[in-house]
Each structure stands twice: as C-alpha cells, then as structure tokens.
Amino acid sequence: MKRALITGITGFVGPHLAEYLLKQGYEVYGTVRWRSNPETLAEIRDRIKIVSSDLKDAHNVNTCLQKVEPDEIYHLAAQSFVPTSFEAPNETLINNIATTANILEAMRLLSNKPKMQMAGSSEEYGLVYPDEVPIRETNPLRPLSPYGVSKVACDKLTLQYHHSYGLKTVVTRAFNHEGPKRGEVFVTSNFAKQIAEIEAGRKKPVIYVGNLEAQRDYSDVRDIVKAYHLSLQKCDPGEVYNICSERSWKIKDVLAYLLSLSKVKVDIEKDPTRMRPSDVEVLKGDCTKFREKTGWKPEIAFEKTLEDTLKYWREKIK
Question: CB–CB of 30/51 below 8 Å?
C-alpha cells in the first residue's frame, strides 16, 4: 500500500484528492494547522490519518516527514486567494515560499526519497499578450499579484531541489478549477452562493460582482485531482506541466449560466471591493505536454461543474 501525504488537506482540493487516492488503495495522511476547518473532511475523516503540523516551522516539518515516511507528497498548502495576497503580501510570500522550502529540505534529509507534486498555478503567467494564447509552459512568467509571485518562487525552488539534490519533484500549473465545496470567496462559488441565498429569501435580489470581462480556463476539481495523481505516476521529475481544459470562459458568461439554472430575477451591481489592483485578463492554457505524457483529459463539462456547485450551495443554505 502506497503512503501519500497531502499538505493543506482541509482546503478545497485536499478532500477531493484524499477521496480519490483512497479509492486507488493509498494510505492517506494529511497535514492540518490548529485553525484548519475539519468540516471539509467529515466524509472521509475516519479513513485518513491527520498530522498536526505548522509547515512554516522547519523542525516541525522534518519531524512530520520522518514520522509519515511518505511515498508521495502532494503539496497543496498555500495562501491561495489572490485578493488576500494584495492585502497581506508579506504573509502570502512567507507562508507559501517558506512552507515549500521546509518540505523540500525535509525531503532531502529523508533516507527514503519520496516523489513530490508541487501545485503551482496559472497565476504565475500573469500578464499574457494576445499572441501568447493559448499559454504553454515555455511562456514567460509575469505574475500580477503577490500570490502569483509566491508561486513562481515555489515553482523555481522545487525545480532547483531536483537539479541540486536529485529530488523527484514535478511542478504542475493548474488553471482555474472549481466544484462543490469551493470556498465562498472564489468567484464561481460566490455567485452560486448569492443565487442560493436569493432563492432562499435570505438576500435581496442583487448579485455583486467584480471584473466580469476577465477570461479563465476552468476545469472540474474532480478531474484535476486525477491529473495530480497522474503527474507522479507518469511525468518526468524536474519538469513543469500545465493542467487545463484548453477552453476559456468570460466571468460574465459563468454568471449568466448560473442564472439560467435559477428562476430568480436579479440586478447586477459592481462592487469596488471585488476589483483587484491588477488583474490577469486572459488565461487559456495548452496542456499538450501533460496530455501526451499521461493520456489525461477533462471528463466533466464545466456546465456540470457549475450545476453541482449551485446544488451544493442550495443544500447548504436551505
């Protein structure tokens, strides 16, 4: 039985990945902080092993890895909300970069040498020019947020440890991924929650929005976790791989589709607090490299993702 360690297991992707790995026959461990939300693990809590760990503490991380002795590490832990990174840039940089460095150092000291998947982000590409779409792994990295900057650093650290110490690390740059249990601060989930609240009579019929013209390449989280697993089974250490649907949606079209699933009549109002100091206008990826290496392709249509997200919030709010 392979042993997998998922950092940040209580986040959005962690529970989906843990459930998928359990189905593949893995023994699953997950790191949690004292302020993590255990509710996200309710359905699988009795089938996984929780390790309390402060990933910013190097000694603590070393102890954790020595104890677990994982065969595979899925490094998901991060401050991943882009607007928060503008409000707390230092915390975002310290949290994301230090935790990654600590994990890599702890891996280097292990007698057994696990594989590690570093969950990078399409936000690393940032400022993308029209003639650079669709975005390939070779595109210049021009991040437009402290979060994007932090992920570039984590990306490069992970590759550096491969080249310097021979660690079996793979970097994935997943484009936007959504689905049930997504945090309410993220745009698709936030729209779905607002609609569910209006349907339930808990909110006046107004949808508050930010930049509706931005375009994003969306995949379903349940497809993404399969890709993360494949990255450690079939991809080459020391390489970077895009994971995406290769289809982009304008945010306004996401909202329109969610509204088409409801009978509520709403007004749409721009909320200045939802606008970023600088925004990535177009993210549309090319995952030819990953697809040819693994055979992966998205199986869940994004329309289905939106339907399931709205269903999740309806059940949660009713």
Answer: yes
Residue type, 81: F
Does residue 15 contact residue 41 with C-beta atoms inside 8 Å?
A: yes
CA distance 6 to 34: 16
The kind and range of the H/E element at 23 are: helix 13-23
For residue range 189-245, list pLDDT tens digits in order: 999 999 999 999 999 999 999 999 999 999 999 999 999 999 999 999 999 999 999
Instruction: Name the residue with higher pLDDT: 86 or 37.
Output: 86
Structural domains present in the chain: 3-177+219-243 (3.40.50.720), 183-216+247-282+300-317 (3.90.25.10)
Report the C-alpha gap between 144 and 276 in whole angstroms: 10
Element of type H or E holding 215: strand 215-217
Q: What is the DSSP letter of 9?
A: T
Rounded distance between C-alpha atoms, residue 120 and residue 108, angstroms: 20
Specify whether the CB–CB gap between 193 and 313 falls below 8 A: yes
Spatial separation of the C-alpha atoms in residues 300 and 102, rounded to whole Å: 35
Q: Judge residue 103's burial from the number of C-beta atoms within 10 Å of its C-beta, 0-12 exposed, 13-18 middle, 19 or more buried.
A: buried
